Amino acid sequence: MSGRPAQQQEFTRDNLEAVLKRRFFYAPAFDIYGGVSGLYDYGPPGCSLQANIVDAWRKHFVLEEDMLEVDTTMLTPHEVLKTSGHVDKFADWMCKDRVTGEIFRADHLVEEVIESRLKGDKEARGEAAAPEKVDDKKRKKKVKEIKSIKLEDSVKEEYETILAKIDGYSGLELGEIIKQYNIVNPTTGGVVEPPIEFNLMFETAIGPSGQLKGYLRPETAQGQFLNFNKLLESNNAKMPFASASIGKSFRNEISPRAGLLRVREFLMAEIEHYVDPEDKSHPRFDEIKDIKLRFLAKDVQSAGKTDITEVTIGEAVKTGMVDNQTLGYFLARIYLFLIKIGVNPEFLRFRQHMSNEMAHYAADCWDAEIKSSYGWIECVGCADRSAYDLSVHAARTNEKLVVRKSLDEPLVVEAFEIDIEKKKFGPKFRKDASKVENYLTSRTDCEKETMAAELEKNGKVVFKVEGMADEVELDRNFINIEKRTRTEHVREYVPNVIEPSFGIGRILYSVLEHAYWSRAGDEARGVLSFPPLVAPTKVLVVPLSNNEELNPISRGLISQLRKFGIPSKVDDSSASIGKRYARNDELGTPFGITIDFQTIKDQTVTLRERDTTKQVRGSQDAILEAVRAMSFGTASWDDATKDLAVFEAQEE
Amino acid sequence: MSGRPAQQQEFTRDNLEAVLKRRFFYAPAFDIYGGVSGLYDYGPPGCSLQANIVDAWRKHFVLEEDMLEVDTTMLTPHEVLKTSGHVDKFADWMCKDRVTGEIFRADHLVEEVIESRLKGDKEARGEAAAPEKVDDKKRKKKVKEIKSIKLEDSVKEEYETILAKIDGYSGLELGEIIKQYNIVNPTTGGVVEPPIEFNLMFETAIGPSGQLKGYLRPETAQGQFLNFNKLLESNNAKMPFASASIGKSFRNEISPRAGLLRVREFLMAEIEHYVDPEDKSHPRFDEIKDIKLRFLAKDVQSAGKTDITEVTIGEAVKTGMVDNQTLGYFLARIYLFLIKIGVNPEFLRFRQHMSNEMAHYAADCWDAEIKSSYGWIECVGCADRSAYDLSVHAARTNEKLVVRKSLDEPLVVEAFEIDIEKKKFGPKFRKDASKVENYLTSRTDCEKETMAAELEKNGKVVFKVEGMADEVELDRNFINIEKRTRTEHVREYVPNVIEPSFGIGRILYSVLEHAYWSRAGDEARGVLSFPPLVAPTKVLVVPLSNNEELNPISRGLISQLRKFGIPSKVDDSSASIGKRYARNDELGTPFGITIDFQTIKDQTVTLRERDTTKQVRGSQDAILEAVRAMSFGTASWDDATKDLAVFEAQEE
Q: Which among A30, A495, A591, B639 could bridge A274 via Cys, Cβ 3.0 to 4.6 Å?
């Protein structure tokens, strides 16, 4: 592509939103019923853009790396999400105005009230408060009016610290801040109740009895973990390998805002890459090691700064900033994917999570953040979930979720072993016998060592077993504990999981912002410069007039394009050529083929490029060949059209 | 494709299910937690088969017909589904054993108990009861044991009539049958309570207050209807046109059974084709009119028969058996699609709904039914939903959902009109003024005529308005009613909707059954003969041994295949060639390329065809070209390999 001009008008979100609405990229769902916040429908161009992004994702990740794609259910029983930790920890803090009943997300309330006080302070100090941006006006704000009140210097500083740390506070801390700084309902001045946890999963009942509680999944990951054994077998037991899934997940946001960036139902694409915890190298790391990325490491953030380190991923792994090759490999692959589909690399960075913001399952985590008019937004997470999920599901279900690896050299292991006189357990413990046995067999090596010492010293061991009233006492008639040496030929381990997780809606919105610009001197003439790879329609066929001789030529071209697998449309409306091209600039269609009366004579047509409005002319076959070369993202305009005649036409 | 041999072993569902499980096409979801009935996960080959079917669907329908694809939310607020009728009518009848609490789907309970009594009767009469099939054993049955009891002839006849009509009974009727024939819980003999309605939608609460009740959508259609105005505009206001959507829908089945055929979460692909109710012709009808389909019309069924009429769709529309061209066009297109993806045309019929089984919104409906070991199963519905949905949503929201058509010749219309003296309404009715006005303007032409007569006769009209205590009385000072002639240049109408609706999971399962067979003489050697178009993997690359010289050749081939967009896999495991081919026959991979030591010398490889196990040998380029020609479904094996040398090898 020739690319859009570097010197473009400043981005205004209002202009983009007008285009997205007019061309039905997406719209609030159920809007004739007044809408439901956080729910959006994708119209034809948005749906197609989404499908193309998903298709590019599948080729870039699943096919390229031979991943095992699965499609698992959204309905998930309570027990599974209780085990994974989501029932207890997948929550936000909310507080309620006890008079009006209005509900606020606690951190958002604190943030908005304090921001408005700082603005009021600025005004009172006579500092030139930055003029409010259109964007800020459009955001549904709780604080309607800024009061010009000067703050004490120390208070101002405290406020700034609170804002810097806002993502890291617990509910208790938020409650204290609300009390200490008298944060109230900004509309009514009413007192708000202390924050309580609100679980973000949508709950439902499965089956007619209403007794099987379930949720809509908050992520696709759990469905992949539960199938681990079947997936490992599908992969002929080879490690490392990855599963992948593309599907909707759900999050019952307290008060959704920011358009597609925070919604209640969203498309995710997630990869679970299973590795040996003792070897997180990646066989294809060399292929990407020289790619430079922009990193924002956790120690930089802890120091209150946002300085970017721009180094190669090879360097980043070598210095230990990025923990291991597999994590690094995926960061580079994520970068390549995002650039390919139209994210501006200048507006892309990788931010490491600080320990206080890490999800409950993560050992390390980097977010690909994309900058838009809403600021830097997490669009892809790349977490090392360690062995957390597989371990907890295995423990809960007594189903082993492990890899067995033949050892090149047998391993000699020293360990304590407990011998149990099973025959004597029955008569002594009756129905509790298996409980006691399970207790003993599930001791760690260290616990066994302690028990061995106790047995040695006292001639017996005494312990409590859950679900039994009395203490259990066992002497040498019942057990023996000894340190023994054994030879192992197989190593059994729970794999660690590296998880790149993509929010498709957030990425799609970022691509829209980065693709949008307007023609010099005319703010209303918007263009969406999608790369051909993801453009909803690749070619617009435009017959100059509705003349009957031109129609068969249009149909022939469309049928050729369809044969090549190139999505295309005819615009045979009566609007002027200029209007029709303008409409399709808004739809982001990269190529236009014009059929005119000359075509009837010599079969030549004109090809127009969206961003530069350059035109060339040639035979239908030559033009189709050029379009084909460019649509699959390999040839540039200059290469593809070098043998075609430049066509000068006054366009609009 | 050469196709599988006509003479194959009899189909046994157990054998197929063993393959599907072993190769992880799909499996019960959450099975390490004991599973949840009616929920299934698709493993890698199932997921890929599904994606290929969806991709074929999109090309066959959406791209071919320029449909407007949308992606709308699954979460749907109560009000929308109340209006569409689903809150009141999307239900099954269930009854409960008041002692054990067990819940039965009423029609299934009646069916199973009566079937078992008829079997017992047969035994008692000494008639050779057909040996129970394996399939029946696997079905979770309520009736564990058949009691050999002879029935009176009249009772036997009544039972047979009940079974024949089982799909058409109301809840009340089912309750009467249960009472009259003493249908009880077959396990305990306990009395069951009268049937009550159970709504099949999953309910949830949207937002933190818990006050916005919502459901998981039971179909994708409503999301399309609500966007009708935006879609019409996207189509430049041209009619007819269609929208389409592919996505999950949900149905909280009372007691799911029959594997993928009756599940609680399922992928649908739905088309809503909007037509002028006065012109349901289809511009492309001629292209398909000579296709012969197998019809089971409603009058045949009403006569208690199942005779098939096999005629061209042109004939079926001409005789009125199929109501109109658009409905007929889609039946033919559905047929072409199903055949293309591997449904056996002998096991496909189109059955018309009888009026008592039609969904609450449908005016006419044909099901594409596919025969499998579960019997004839509805896999695609093709309903004429008339103007039902658009009308009810428009009435509820006061948002017009109509098409405006410029008339070629202006239309002269005679109609009654009511003139209102608005200025006098305010003082007379105060806050009720607009209620009275709305009442008057929303009268039908016939009602206006009656009022005109009343005004003429009495000098006033008297009527009741909802929400007002007193009767309203108006004389000529307030209104005037007159018959007038006006000229209309635009016709406004609510379009009718023809809806082809595809259950992807049911189609996928049918394709699996139709594709499955086993090699002569060896029931355990299963083959899935998918058409290359939908096969999960197109090519298996098999290096003869794990020799280091062969590996780069495998990688080169895979990289070439990837460049052509042909999904392929290497199997470099240590299993024998025969075992590796057998494994991939089970995965339905149509082509195998073998690399051996000859390849190192002369670059030739062997190509194997799955169904016939025929092999040919040629240069890598020639083989790749043949595979490419066949993978996109255009060339046959004989055509694609005619220049290649036949290769004779003992395979296994």
A: A495
